[in-house]
Each structure stands twice: as C-alpha cells, then as structure tokens.
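Here we describe the complex-level prediction in full. Unlike the single-chain runs in Section 2.1, the two entities below were treated as one system.
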Amino acid sequence: MLNVIKMDLYRMIRTKSLYIIWFIAAVCMLGTTYILKSESLSEEIHDQSQQEVISDYGKGEVALGIMVMTPIEPGEKVTVKDVFYGNAQSKFYALFFVIFTVLFAMADINSGYIKNIGGQIKSRGSLIIAKAVSLLVYTILSMFVMVLIQIVSNRLVLGYVEIGNIKDFFAYMGIQTLLYYALCIICMAIAIILKSNVASMVIVICLCMNMFLILYSAIDKVLGMIGVKNFNLFKYTVTGRIAMVSQNPTGKECFPAAVVAISFIVACTAVCVAVFRKRDM
Amino acid sequence: MSEMLLQTKGLTKQYGHQKAVDHVDVHIRKGAIYGFIGRNGAGKTTFLKMISGLAAATNGEIEMFGYKGKDLQKIRSRVGCLIESPGLYGNMDAYENLKIKCTLFGIKEKNYIEEILKTVGLSDVGNKKTKHYSLGMKQRLGIGLALVGEPDLLVLDEPINGLDPQGIAEVRDTIQKLRDERSMTIIISSHILEELSKIATDYGIIHKGMLLQELTREELMNRCSERIEVNLDQPEQAVPVLDSMGFTKYQVADKEHIYIFERLGESAQLNMELARAGIPVKGISITSEELETYFLNLTGGGLNA
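The structure predicted for the assembly as a whole is:
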C-alpha cells in the first residue's frame, strides 16, 4: 500500500499540470489583488460589487458564478486573511483544485498506464486510496502555496503584508482545507465514474460556480411539497459549507462542516473503490 | 510432457448478449512462446486481459503457476503485460515511466532501470519525452514496463501491430532476447502470422471468441507444408465426389484447382474416384501451404469457397 502511495506521489510531483495550474493561479491572484486594491480605494466600486450578487440562497448570499467578496471596507487595510477568505469562500481557489484533480485522477487511465500496473497489484482499491492520499497532500500543499502567493501578491501590489488574526486565520484555513479536500474527492469520484475528462471538467466547474444551486433549490421545493418544510440541501453539500463558513469560524460552525466533509470523503472514496474493483481496465 | 504454466477451462467473457471469449481452453507450457492468432475482433485482447487480471471472466477458470480462483491474486505480480497500445506518460521520459512502476514494486536496486532500458534497446534515448518516440520505441518501452518486477509470464498483445519492418524486427529481437536470456514464458498475440511464425513455439488459433486449434510449431509446420492439390478443368464437378468420400476440409481455390487439407495419403484413391466419376484430372500432387492460407482455411476465410 505504501508503495502505491509513493508511486502516486512521485507521479504527482512529476506532473507538469501541477506547476502550470499553480502558475496560472498565481497570475490570477496577482490580478485579483490588483482589482481589490482599486476597490478598496474607491467606495463607489466597492458598493457596486456588493450589489452584483445574483441570487441568495438560505441565510447567506451565494452568487451563481464566481464572485470574490472580501470583508473589507473602503480605506481599510487589506489583510492576507481577508483575501484568503474571499477567494476560498467564493471557490475561486477551488477552480484550480478541481481542474488539477480531474487531470490527476484521470492521467493513468487516459494514458493507459493503469494497464501496466492494474493487473499486478493485489487490490485495485489501493490505487484509489493512493489517489486519495495524494490529493490530501496536494490540497494541504496547495493551500499553503495559495497563502504564499497571496503574501507575495499583497507585497507586490499593495506594498505591505498584513496577515490578520493568526488564530482565526488558521482555524478558517483548517476547515476550508478539509472542505476543499472533500471537494477534490468528489471530483475524483466524478472523473473515475464518468471516465471522461471533458464531462467531468464541465461538472466540477459547474460545482465551483454554484450552478447546482438550481438543482438544490428544486429538490428543496419538491421536499417542501411532500411535507419536509424549511429543508436546505445546500447546507448539506460541500460547496454549500465552503460558502457558509464564516471568516472567524466557531466550533459550532466547524463541526457540521467537518461532518459534511468527512461524510463525502468516506462515501466518494468507497464508491470509487467499488467501481474500480468491479470495472475492467 | 512439459510443465503447464497456464491453463484455462471454459474461460468466457460476455458483454450483454455478445460472447467476446467463448469457453476457451488453452494450455501453455513453461518456457513456451505461445502465439495467439486471430483476426481483429476474434477475442484475443479480451482473453489476454483476463489472463493479466485486467478484466474479470464471466465464466470459467484460470489456473496459473498452480493457483486458481481467489488465490490468483497471490501471483498476479508474476505476470507482466503489454495490452493494446503501450500505456505511457507522454510528458515523462523512459526512465521516469519505468521509475513509477519500480516505485510500485519497491525496487531500489541500482542500475535496475538502466538494465531494462538496455534489454529493450532504449539505453541511449536520454531525456527524450516518450510522446516524441516512434511507435516501435513506445512498444519496446511498453515491453520494458512489463519486465519490471521480473515476471515469469509476459503477455504481449499485438506488439508488432502498426510497426514498419524495422520496428517489427526490433520488437522481434527483443522478444527473442527475453526468451534466450531470461527464459520467460511469453504469450504474444498477432494477426501477422508470418512474423509470429518466426518466434512462436506453440500456437492457439482463436476465431469469433472460440479457440479453434492449439498446436506446436512442428504440428503447424507439418499441416502447412502439405496438401493435396488437384488440377481440373471444372473443379466444381469434383465437389460431390469429395463430399461422398467424406472430405470436409477442402477449398476450390480457382478455376482449375482444388486444395484438400486432410487425409493426404489418399491422393491415389481420390484420383481413382474422380476418374470413375468421369472427371478428367490434369494433375494431382501434394504441395505445401502458406501459413496465412492455413489460417484463413481454418477460420472459414476461404473454405468451401
């Protein structure tokens, strides 16, 4: 098992797309920091951006598409924590995570490399566990890379680096890392089940852009019609929890988010293992 | 009789109502190079996938190295395979592709990868990405990947498919080298019979998912080398005579010839029967047959045409 994990980690660090996606993320974050600088200086622009929320869902405002909203007032100093919150909550970071996940999860299948190894390992399920472990490493590593890029962007664009409240920042980063990992595992499951890069990519990007809100809303309405009142499916989804966690999360907020994340991680990994064991290569 | 390394009993793979492999019983001796012959879509790849553990059988049994059923998992690592096209990471070089599989097997031996590259004739490719390789180079690297972990059984599915003559020769040399240096048992599938006949020691002929025949090189050569060739003005007139004599494996080859692939010692009797039926025979002889024709004859490609 350890060798399978080592193999996948080796494969991951040798994958070009890992570095290309980080590079693109860096460029985009530099750009968004620049926009943020303009917004923070202008009250008019700030107000406009606040009004661009397309739909509200449940208690929190959730936009269709990706809308980065930072909790700063005009003239306030922009901290790394504020920008990280805006990017993580809006699933701007998630876009990069899910694209890499689909590419990584499908690389051995698409290239046919899996046929070199699939028959020789004792349990095919270990290939999925190895992918899941590699994605955990990737998620943690990427979260730190995002913070690092943001620090550099703030320094370059804003001219200063202010982290914000460290304790709250780490609490928020920790719960978002868990939720982002769950999102990656969901994407891995989608890719493995569909066995199609294009279809998987479309679905996971739609997930990040909250396109499934329409579906969740329809399910809520159907449930309402059959007597389940005030049900909010969004609260029980990973993307929903990513959007709902507040900037200074309390234990009361983190616990249900962690339960949702862990449930999806376990369920999706189990489904992938079952599919991989059953399916011919 | 040589020790059997692999045997299947009634091995079947069904997709919906279609049987891709239908009750196949093969017997592969230890140390043999087993040529698996069949047309495209005959069921070769599906059969080899089941042997390699890449596909599950719908029915039947595989016995390998004395293990069968769930115990096969114990010896799966002893089967190296190259199924369909070589599965390579295009953005990595040959060394990195091999390194990934070596990591899986926990192989840390010094120069292990270099040795494999040398065996398959890729020791001087340097850092060239595999996406820039020729098909022949890719096939050889695919064989190299199959060699990681020192398998006792090597399964090669159409390794010479799509190669130019030089590529075919390179892959053939690699396979011969493996047989000579590593004493491996090799299953190699192909529809290029001429090439297969240069290296295989045993043959299995599969058609429409069914194994039609299993034979050794000697048996195949014997069968291919001789047939009764009858020269007539109107060959179709001889068909009822052949039928009445109980011949079933014959072919009206052209406007003047009938080939008979069985009971080669009965040519004189056949001549007499044809004369008795008033059919003039211009000539009758026992001649040899191309491997290709034998295969087509067996798979119904030209039989009784």
